[in-house]
Amino acid sequence: MYTQKTIFPIASLILACLFVLPGNEPLASEEEFQFKCVRAMGMGNAFAAIADDGDAFYYNPAGLATIRDIRLDIQPVRFIPSYDLYDQLKDLEQLRDDINALDESENPLEDPNLEAERRRLMDRMKRLLNDDLGIDVGFPVRVILPLHIGDCGVAIGGMTHAWSASRLEAQRRGLDWSDFVMDALDDEVYYHAMVETSYGVGAAAEIPLARSMELSFGVVARRIHRWRMTDADDLLGLDDILADDFQERYFDPEDPWASVSEGKGYSVDAGTIGSFGDAVNLAVVVQNLMGSVKYEGEADEELSQNIAVSGAVNLAKLSNPAVPMLDVILAARVDSDKETQLGLELAWNLPLLSLSGRIGSNRGYMTLGAGIKLLFLDFDYALYGDQNTNWHAFSLNLAF
Fold first, then answer.
1. With contact defined as beta carbons under 8 Å apart, do 206 and 173 qualify?
2. Is the CB of residue 194 less than 8 Å from the CB of residue 51?
3. Across the chain, where does the E strand assignment appear?
4. Which of 378, 379, 370 minimizes the C-alpha distance to 344?
5. What's the whole-number average pLDDT of the chain?
6. Which residues does 320 contact at the CB level (< 8 Å), separation at least 6?
7. Span 4-399 CATH architecture
8. What is the rounded distance in angstroms from the CA atom of residue 184 to the CA atom of residue 172?
9. What H or E segment, with its residue span, contains residue 129?
10. Is 259 helix (H, G, I), strand (E, B) or coil?
């Protein structure tokens, strides 16, 4: 195990890796549409040096080599609404009742018996001007086939997913009228809707370097088929809706599919993980080492390359002897844009049951999470903050 003399240089190495990064272009705004796992979201997305399950396909393909048993991951539930959308949906029945009551009245604007309904409807419209409505729904399936001989090992695997991510929000423009109707006339609307199907293959290998030290490296290649509709380059305002060229610039309400762009492409990720016993991992991962999506009649979308350096320390495994049935994992990650993601996971592992709690910082935005694993059922929840808004994230994973 580790002594005080060995812990200090290991910690120094982690800090050096985290703060000395090669220069590169910043992450694109499309980062919000990156596929994320709920466990990692609870840890601020600082997961590249852990990557010990099927989500290694997205966070670091080198993690595939550290999986010891044949694994099939099916995620029938993966639902991530923004906090504002969740707030709007949870009282949807009340909204429906209010609309029905107003619709049945002969004088809905002045009927004194409908004052409460009118007030609730007005308050809801005011909230919509300030809400960020977003939803992320996916159905990933991953299979991993490892082969280990002694301290050496290889793994191959495949992944596929159907995925949809959308956002809708009002962008402030012009004067603040302190009147939601006048504000609505001035505001612009940003919308982005994306549906993606993807399938890919991954391969990884693990080799020993010295006593209690291993190096894993891996690569994942994915084929991407994507449909999107957005006004990101030309935000929609009331004056645009009234313009003669509205349908050509945005979408035709009678044929919305005509405004959907269809693209096909690929992406390749590569990564490494250096492991020091069971306690310390250091990782480097390159997302979109190569990759682009080609749209008919539009400019090709070059997927933004991102280099991340990450470290993770399991404090419960540093002691001699290791603390049984307990994991205390501190993790950190720095991307090409020098933004930092930090996470902590505390897990209590019993023979048939595992309970975990998580906290993190995603580029300065707080995240929280929890998980319950029972036999082959794994349920995770996260409250995740990013540069846009806060998200609730739920997933149920079946691991065989």
1. no
2. no
3. 71-81, 132-149, 152-171, 188-210, 213-230, 236-237, 261-276, 280-295, 301-302, 306-314, 326-334, 340-349, 353-362, 365-374, 377-385, 390-399
4. 370
5. 83
6. 1, 2, 3
7. Beta Barrel (2.40)
8. 9
9. helix 115-130
10. helix
| 114-131: pLDDT as tens digits | 888 777 777 777 666 677
Residues forming beta bridges with residue 82, ordered by sequence position: 391
Who wins on pLDDT, 264 or 34?
A: 264
Q: Using the CB atoms, write b or e for 319-355: b if 16+ within 10 Å.
A: eeebeeeebebbbbbbbbeeebbbbbbebeeeeeebe
Query: How far apart are alpha carbons 317 and 277 in whole angstroms?
Result: 9
| Residue pLDDT, tens place only, 61-99 | 999 999 989 999 999 999 999 988 887 777 777 777 877
Q: Quote the tokens at residue 109.
A: 């604007």
CA distances from 338 to 58, 165, 307, 387 (A): 20, 26, 10, 15
3 state SS for 151-196: CEEEEEEEEEEEEEEEEEEEECCCCCCCCHHHHHHHCEEEEEEEEE
